């Protein structure tokens, strides 16, 4: 797809282990590894960033090369999409990779699902990135989620399956 600044951005999905590890290294909640293969199978598109110097050619990473950044879209491929998993390895942050991954994802939506409502949940550290690509706060709506497994929030683990009381 694109190559500059020492990195090449291409369409593709990481292996389940790389997906898990890159999320963890980027400070995001790592998913249960056993659920990752099915999740990746159901992607609309994945975007990966590799160090150009290690690639076999402009579109082919070397067999043992690991992506240093990723992003993913999932959904019904037409009307509703979820942008997720924009993650950059800490050793490669602050080099524009998050922006390049986002631009590739937005370009993909514009070309393949231009009528789609694309939603996302932004980690606090990335909330300034997304408006640059046309994302807006959902107000007056509010964001909600449901998850039975544990979720890490600002360094502590919260058990999502327990309830603190009646609603």
Predict the CATH topology: Aminopeptidase
CATH architecture classification name = 3-Layer(aba) Sandwich
Number of helices: 3
| Rounded radius of gyration (Å) | 17 Å
Kindly name the structural category. alpha+beta
Question: How would you spell out the order of helices and strands?
Answer: EEHHEEEEEHEEE
Percent helix range? 10-25%
Beta-strand content bin: 25-35%
- In the CATH scheme, the class would be Alpha Beta
Residue runs with pLDDT of under 50 for 5 or more positions: 160-167
Total strand count, please? 10
How many structural domains in the coordinates? Answer: 1
Terminus-to-terminus distance:
49 Å
Account of the protein in words:
With 167 residues, this protein is an alpha+beta fold. It has a single domain (2-140), classed as Gcn5-related N-acetyltransferase (GNAT) (Aminopeptidase, 3-Layer(aba) Sandwich), CATH 3.40.630. It contains 3 helices and 10 strands, in the order E-E-H-H-E-E-E-E-E-H-E-E-E. Strands 1-2-3-6-7-8 form a 6-stranded mixed sheet. The protein has a two-stranded antiparallel sheet with strand order 4-5. It has a two-stranded antiparallel sheet with strand order 9-10. The model is unreliable at 160-167 (pLDDT under 50).
Structure described in brief:
This protein is of the alpha+beta class and 167 residues long.
Task: Detail the topology: elements first, then pairings.
Layout: E1 2-4, E2 7-11, H1 16-25, H2 36-41, E3 43-51, E4 55-57, E5 60-61, E6 69-75, E7 80-88, H3 97-112, E8 117-119, E9 150-153, E10 156-159
Parallel strand pairs: 7-8
Antiparallel strand pairs: 1-2, 2-3, 3-6, 4-5, 6-7, 9-10
